[in-house]
Amino acid sequence: MDQFVINLIFVGASFALYIGIAIWARAGSTSDFYAASRGVNPVVNGAATAADWMSAASFISMAGLIAAVGYGNSTFLMGWTGGYVILALLLAPYLRKFGRFTVPDFIGDRFYSQTARLVAVISLLVMSITYVIGQMTGAAVAFSRFLEVDNTTGLFIASAVVFCYAVLGGMKGITYTQLAQYCVLIVAYTIPAVFISLQLTGNPLPQLGLFSTHTASGQPLLQTLNEVLMDLGFNDYTGNHGSTFNMVLFTLSLMIGTAGLPHVIIRFFTVPKVADARTSAGWALVFIALLYTVAPAVGAMARLNIITTLWPQGIEGEPLAFDEKPDWMLNWERTGLLRFEDLNGDGLIQYYNAANPPQRAIDEGWEGNEMVLFNNDILVLANPEIANLPGWVIGLIAAGGLAAALSTAAGLLLAISSAVSHDLIKSIINPGISEKSELLAARISMAFAIALATYLGLNPPGFAAQVVALAFGLAAASLFPAIMMGIFSKKMNSSGAIAGMIVGLGSTILYIFTYLGWFFIPGTNMLPNTPDNWLGAGLGMGISPLSFGAVGAALNFITAFIVMKLTAPVPTEIEELVESIRVPKGAGAAVDH
Questions:
Q1: DSSP assigned state of 569
Q2: Are 452 and 528 in contact, with CB atoms under 8 Å apart?
Q3: Cα separation, 155 vs 137, whole angstroms
Q4: Which of 16, 40, 81, 276 is deepest in the core (most CB within 10 A)?
Q5: What are 346-403's pLDDT values in tens digits?
Q6: How buried is 325 (Cβ within 10 angstroms: 0-12 exposed, 13-18 middle, 19+ buried)?
Q7: Residue 475: which region, alpha, beta or left (left: phi > 0; alpha: psi -120 to 50)?
Q8: Distance from first CA to last CA of the chain, Å, rounded?
């Protein structure tokens, strides 16, 4: 059977399942739409949370970034998993006990201020729209290859599909859709990894295969990878070649950004009891670990496979000829995400680090690296093709990549629509709005968010995981400190929280604008995005735009506590409310305030 037909079968069947679930679980009330009527089983919620969490950045892009850099990009793994532990242990149960639908709802009531609610809504919208762009970017990559269309067409198809089931089902439909998507994505991610680990090391567990003996060379796989990379002028895979300070700062930014993600937090509002919030968080960590422990192996093994494809006899032998390119290269070239150019006209593909060329490249006068474009987001999706796995595995990973991107996109869109309809329209603009009108406003705002994310996704500022990292920085600088202070500081008042959020969000946006431009429009950045220009570069501690969220969070905390000391104290009833959230008394049944 033709590979295109196989892809259509797998992708079409998964989409039919998602849309069918959305119709079956169609939201009929605002409680259904925002929180699935608080009736989701903790295990189901754990799987749905894992799918919500493991976005296109995790499934499609993370292993590609690890493959490109090696140890230095393990920050994505450390930051995201560490942040989820903070969220599960320190925030989720308390927020569930508070008994609200959304994060701005909590901030508005805890800080007894509509202004605080409005600032939280703005922070949520900025962060969530940035995050959705990463998901649409990843979905576009998957659609473009497996439906054999260009990347832009793939983006429009992804937008249409997520519109169908997210707008229709709300949280109730999205929850059960995400359960199905988790099953699809985890099977799709692990099966190719098992096959490739067996091929390269004879070990069926990729987590162990990464540290096993490479069958062809007879030495550890990572040692082999280090050697072939250094032969081509690249850095060794297992070394740290960047700024340790920036690496720590980036990891911290991802961690606290994770704990401030509103689309993940609202998942904990769907369970019946506070105790269920902790249970579902535990299950989510188990489900997440099944993918995150495999990702480093996927990245390393794919990088080795690509190099050995381009240099079948090693750097001392002849490189791959242009007219001998395997089908996977031809397939991905059609998407515009992979490109080769015969710079010296010899018909052979010279692949090496042009910034640090090997001696042979100098001796033979090669013109430069002839793999002139390799989008890191294609690596996981191309992995089965690179390893010559069966067609059904390729179709499966197509469905898995799309499931990962669309599940998180749906969760983010729900957070956006809830913020607009519930926190902005119902709570601030028109408190007397009917439930039917509020539900309509939620669906319209979700549709508008899809359109905006699609437009911005046409020109993303980086790979899917890098765009997502920007969103995490925005969440770290704005929402996370406000939530933490709202739970653990009885003395934090509305003035302090508002000032902190404005300073944290504003400083982070300004820093991103300085180096990446405004709304990702090329040429609008004020300074080149290079380490030499970053803040602190003169002291050897340059701060990347992806890492600035941790600095923004620190500015948020400092500003909040200074303003708190200079303004009116918190009302007594608010102090008592905070105390009731923190004390585990009555932790069985959460009471809606």
A1: P
A2: no
A3: 7
A4: 40
A5: 999 999 999 999 999 999 999 899 999 988 878 888 888 888 888 888 888 888 877 7
A6: middle
A7: alpha
A8: 58
Region 62-71: what's the mean pLDDT?
87
What single DSSP character describes residue 378? Answer: G
Two tokens, residue 428: 């601030």
For residue 521, the SS3 value is coil
Spatial separation of the C-alpha atoms in residues 83 and 88, rounded to whole Å: 9
Query: Looking at the DSSP assignment, which residues form a beta bridge with residue 556?
Result: none
Structure-token pair, residue 561: 């506590």
Structure tokens at 110: 């805890």
Residue ranges of E strands in 450-545: none
The pLDDT, as a whole number, for residue 539 is 76
* Structural domains of the chain sorted by starting position, each given as residue range(s) with its CATH number in brackets: 3-302+386-455 (1.20.1730.10), 340-372 (no CATH)
What rounded mean pLDDT belongs to the chain? 84
Distances in Å between the Cα of 16 and the Cα atoms of 19, 22, 236, 404, 505 are: 5, 10, 45, 16, 40
Q: Cα separation of 137 and 122, whole Å? A: 23
pLDDT range class, residue 499, cuts 50, 70, 90: very high
- For residue 588, pLDDT over 50 is answered with no
Encoding tokens for residue 185? 């994505």
Backbone phi and psi for residue 338, each to the nearest 5 degrees, phi listed first: -140, 135
Distance CA 111, CA 575 (A): 10
Q: Could you tell me the pLDDT band of residue 93, with boundaries at 50, 70 and 90? A: confident
Residue 590, token pair as written in the block: 């959460």
Q: How distant, in Å, are the alpha carbons of 51, 219, 302, 429 from that of 298?
A: 19, 19, 6, 49
Asked if residue 540 lies in contact with residue 503, where contact means CB atoms within 8 angstroms, the answer is: no
In terms of residues, how long is the chain?
593
| Cα separation values, 188 from 14, 201, 404, Å | 12, 20, 10
Scanning 60-113, the segments in alpha helix (DSSP H) are 63-69, 75-86, 92-98, 103-110
Give φ, ψ of 544 to 5 degrees: -65, 150
Q: Got the DSSP string for 313-349?
A: T-TTSPPPBGGG--HHHHHHHTTTSEEE--TTSSSB-
- The token pair at 115 is 């202004």
Q: Is the pLDDT of residue 41 over 90?
A: no
CA–CA separation, 141 vs 136, rounded Å?
A: 9
